[in-house]
C-alpha cells in the first residue's frame, strides 16, 4: 500500500517503470526518479538531468514542475520506501531490527550467529555490510537507502535467507529508508550522545530512533529493551502504548536479568535469570558491553521463535565481531593489543571499563574523532579518556573535510595531558613501543574500517596489519 498523501498521475496504469533511482547520476532509461529535498541540495534540481538520462516518471512533492508524469507525495521519502518494497517484493520472512547509539552491529551479528547455530538461513545487515555464514559483502551504509535496502532484501530472500537481523540507524529511520520494511522483532540498546551534527537536538535524535517502535514494528511485535539504559523505561513505555510485547533485558531487565558477571582472561561467566530459572552461561568474549549485546541478541532470538534455552546456550559459541574488542596480538612481554570501534563518549567509557578487569598494569589508549561528525562529542571523548585510561595518545580518525589538527585540539581540551601524534600508524607504533608487561593497548575508532578518509581521498589503512607488523618487529628484536 502506498502511504497517505500520494497522488498518482493519470498515466500511472500504463507507465512501464524498469528501475528506481534517487540519484540522477544513477538513472537509466525507464527509471522512476525520486527527487527528494536534501540537506545540501534539492533533488528536484536534478529532474532535467534525470529526464535526459531516460527517466520516465518523477516522484516528488506536490506542485513540482516537470515534463514527466509526476507521482506527487507529501512525504516522498516514505513513498519511495513503499514503492521500492513493491518493486523488489522479496524479503526474509523474519526481519529483526536493532536501534540505539552503540551496540547495533554487535547485536545483529550475535543474533545472526545464534540463528545460524539453531539451523536457520540467517544474515545480518548493517555497518559491516551483509554478513552470512559464507562471508561478507559491502552495503556502504548502516541502514542503506530504500532502493538499495529492498534490492538487498529481495536478493537475500531469493538466496534462501529466512532470518535477517538489521541495524536501524537514526539517519535511516529519520530519512524513511526503512519505511517499506515490516519489522517482526525490534530492539533498543541505549541512547547517548552522537550524531548531533545531523540531528538538531537530542529530542530529534530520540524521536528518530523511536520510529522503529512507533511506526515500523508490526502490530503486537516483540520489542527487546535494554533496561540498563537511562532511556530504557521510557522506550518500554512507548512500546507498551503502541501495543508491542516488551521484553526487558539487562541488570534491571525482568525477563532476561543479568545477576552476576565473572570476568576471566578471555571469557565471562554470566549468571542469568530467565522465567525464574537461574543459569550460568560462559560467553567466550570479554567486556560487560558485549554481555549486554549478547543477552539482547539471545532475547531477540527467543522472541523470533527460537527456544530461549537454545538461544542462551548458543552464546557459549559466539565469535567476536570484527573490530569490536578484537584481540590482534601481544607484545613479546605479553601485553595485548585490541582494536575497537568506540567513536562516542559512552562507547569509549564502556570500552575502557571493559578492559580494566583484564589489565594488571596500565591501559594505553590511542584514539581520534571523525571529521564532519558531531564536533561537540570530541572534548567529551577526551574527558572520558583522561578519566579512565592511564596513558592517552590522540591521533587522526577520518578527518574528512576538516583540519585534522583542529579536531585533535578539540579532543585535547578534554585530555590536556595526552600525547598528540597525528599520523595514526606512528601513534599506534609509538604506543606499542611503550607497552610494559601487564599493560593493555586499546586502539579505538576504526574497528573494521579499512581506510583513512583525508579530504575526499580514502587512503588504505589496515589497522590489524599495522599492529601485527609492529608486534612482529618487536618479536624479531626481542
Ligand atoms: C547526512 C545524510 O544522511 N545524508 C544523506 C542524504 O544526503 P543529503 O540530504 O545531503 O542529499 P543532498 O546532497 O542534499 O541531495 C539531495 C538529493 O539529490 C540527489 N542528487 C544529488 C546530486 C546529483 O547530482 N543528483 C541527485 O539526484 C541526492 O541523491 C539526494 O537524494 O541523502 C542522501 C541520499 O538521498 C544520502 O546518500 C546521504 O548520506 C550521506 C552521504 C551520509 O554520509 N550519510 C551518513 C552520515 C549516514 O547515513 N550514516 C548512517 C548512520 C551511521 C551511524 O549510525 O554511525 C547510516 O545509516 O549509515
Ligand atoms: N551495549 C553497548 N553499550 C555501550 N557501548 C557499546 C555497546 N556495544 C558496543 N559499544 C561500543 O560501541 C562500539 C561500536 O559498537 P557497534 O559497532 O556494535 O555499535 P553500532 O551501534 O553498530 O555503531 P554505529 O552507529 O557506528 O553503527 C563498540 O566498539 C564499543 O566500543
Ligand atoms: N558510522 C559512524 C562511525 C564512524 C567512526 C569513526 N571512524 C569516524 O569516522 O567518525 C559515523 O560515520 O559516524
Ligand atoms: Mg553499526
UniProtKB/TrEMBL annotation:
Gene3D superfamilies: Mur ligase, C-terminal domain, Mur-like, catalytic domain, MurE/MurF, N-terminal domain. Meso-2,6-diaminopimelate binds at residues 373, 397-400, 445, 449. It is found in: Cytoplasm. Carboxylation is probably crucial for Mg(2+) binding and, consequently, for the gamma-phosphate positioning of ATP. Keywords: ATP-binding, Cell cycle, Cell division, Cell shape, Cell wall biogenesis/degradation, Cytoplasm, Ligase, Magnesium, Nucleotide-binding, Peptidoglycan synthesis. UDP-N-acetyl-alpha-D-muramoyl-L-alanyl-D-glutamate binds at residues 22, 24, 142-143, 169, 175, 177. One of its GO terms (molecular function) is ATP binding. The modification N6-carboxylysine is found at residue 209. It is an enzyme of class 6 (ligase). InterPro entries: Mur-like_cat_sf (IPR036565), Mur_ligase_C (IPR004101), Mur_ligase_C_dom_sf (IPR036615), Mur_ligase_cen (IPR013221), Mur_ligase_N (IPR000713), MurE/MurF_N (IPR035911), UDP-N-AcMur-Glu-dNH2Pim_ligase (IPR005761). GO terms for cellular component: cytoplasm. The keyword Cell wall biogenesis/degradation applies. Residues 98-301 form the Mur ligase central domain. Residues 323-447 form the Mur ligase C-terminal domain. The keyword Endoplasmic reticulum does not apply. A motif (Meso-diaminopimelate recognition motif) lies at residues 397-400. It catalyses: UDP-N-acetyl-alpha-D-muramoyl-L-alanyl-D-glutamate + meso-2,6-diaminopimelate + ATP = UDP-N-acetyl-alpha-D-muramoyl-L-alanyl-gamma-D-glutamyl-meso-2,6-diaminopimelate + ADP + phosphate + H(+). Belongs to the MurCDEF family. MurE subfamily. This is UDP-N-acetylmuramoyl-L-alanyl-D-glutamate--2,6-diaminopimelate ligase. The lineage of its organism: Bacteria, Pseudomonadati, Pseudomonadota, Alphaproteobacteria, Maricaulales. The gene is murE.
Amino acid at each position: 500500500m502506498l502511504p497517505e498523501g500520494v497522488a498518482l498521475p493519470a498515466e500511472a496504469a500504463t507507465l512501464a517503470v524498469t528501475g528506481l533511482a534517487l540519484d540522477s547520476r544513477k538513472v537509466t532509461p525507464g527509471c522512476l526518479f525520486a527527487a527528494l529535498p536534501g540537506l545540501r541540495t534539492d533533488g528536484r534540481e536534478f529532474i532535467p538531468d534525470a529526464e535526459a538520462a531516460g527517466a520516465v516518471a518523477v516522484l516528488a512533492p506536490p506542485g513540482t514542475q516537470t515534463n514527466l508524469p509526476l507521482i506527487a507525495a507529501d512525504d516522498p521519502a516514505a513513498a519511495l520506501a513503499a514503492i521500492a518494497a513493491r518493486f523488489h517484493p522479496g524479503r526474509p520472512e523474519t526481519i529483526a531490527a536493532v536501534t540505539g547509539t552503540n551496540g547495533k552491529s554487535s547485536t545483529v551479528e550475535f543474533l545472526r550467529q545464534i540463528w545460524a547455530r539453531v539451523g536457520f538461513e540467517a544474515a545480518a545487515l548493517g555497518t559491516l555490510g551483509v554478513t552470512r555464514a559464507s562471508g561478507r559483502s559491502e552495503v556502504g551504509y548502516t541502514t542503506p537507502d530504500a532502493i538499495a535496502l529492498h534490492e538487498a532484501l529481495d536478493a537475500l530472500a531469493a538466496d534462501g535467507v529466512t532470518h535477517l537481523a538489521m541495524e536501524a540507524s537514526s539517519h535511516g529511520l529519520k530519512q524513511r529508508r526503512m519505511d517499506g520494511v515490516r519489522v517482526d522483532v525490534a530492539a533498543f540498546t541505549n541512547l547517548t550522545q552522537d550524531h548531533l551534527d545531523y540531528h538538531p537536538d537530542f529530542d530529534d535524535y530520540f524521536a528518530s530512533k523511536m520510529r522503529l517502535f512507533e511506526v515500523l514494528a508490526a502490530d503486537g511485535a516483540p520489542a527487546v529493551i535494554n533496561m540498563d539504559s537511562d532511556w530504557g523505561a521510557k522506550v518500554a513505555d512507548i512500546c507498551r502504548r503502541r501495543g508491542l510485547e516488551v521484553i526487558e533485558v539487562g541488570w534491571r531487565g525482568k525477563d532476561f536479568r543479568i545477576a552476576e558477571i565473572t570476568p576471566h582472561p578471555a571469557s565471562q561467566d554470566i549468571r542469568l535469570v530467565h522465567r525464574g530459572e537461574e543459569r550460568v552461561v560462559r560467553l567466550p568474549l570479554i567486556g560487560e558491553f558485549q554481555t549486554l549485546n549478547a543477552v539482547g541478541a539471545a532475547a531477540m532470538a527467543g522472541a523470533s521463535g527460537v527456544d530461549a534455552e537454545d538461544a542462551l546456550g548458543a552464546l557459549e559459541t559466539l565469535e567476536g565481531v570484527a573490530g569490536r574488542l578484537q584481540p590482534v596480538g601481544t607484545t613479546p612481554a605479553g601485553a595485548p593489543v585490541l582494536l575497537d570501534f568506540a567513536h562516542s563518549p559512552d562507547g569509549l567509557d564502556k570500552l575502557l571499563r571493559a578492559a580494566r578487569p583484564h589489565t594488571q598494569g596500565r591501559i594505553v589508549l590511542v584514539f581520534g574523532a571523525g571529521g564532519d561528525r558531531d564536533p561537540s562529542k570530541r572534548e567529551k571523548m577526551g574527558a572520558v579518556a583522561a578519566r579512565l585510561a592511564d596513558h592517552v595518545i590522540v591521533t587522526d580518525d577520518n578527518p574528512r573535510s576538516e583540519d585534522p589538527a583542529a579536531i585533535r585540539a578539540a579532543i585535547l581540551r578534554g585530555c590536556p595531558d595526552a600525547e598528540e601524534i597525528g599520523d595514526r600508524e606512528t601513534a599506534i607504533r609509538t604506543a606499542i613501543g611503550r607497552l610494559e608487561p601487564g599493560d593493555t593497548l586499546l586502539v579505538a575508532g576504526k574497528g573494521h574500517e579499512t581506510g583513512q578518509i583525508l579530504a575526499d581521498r580514502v587512503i588504505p589503512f589496515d589497522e590489524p596489519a599495522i599492529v601485527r607488523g609492529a608486534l612482529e618487529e618487536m618479536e624479531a628484536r626481542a
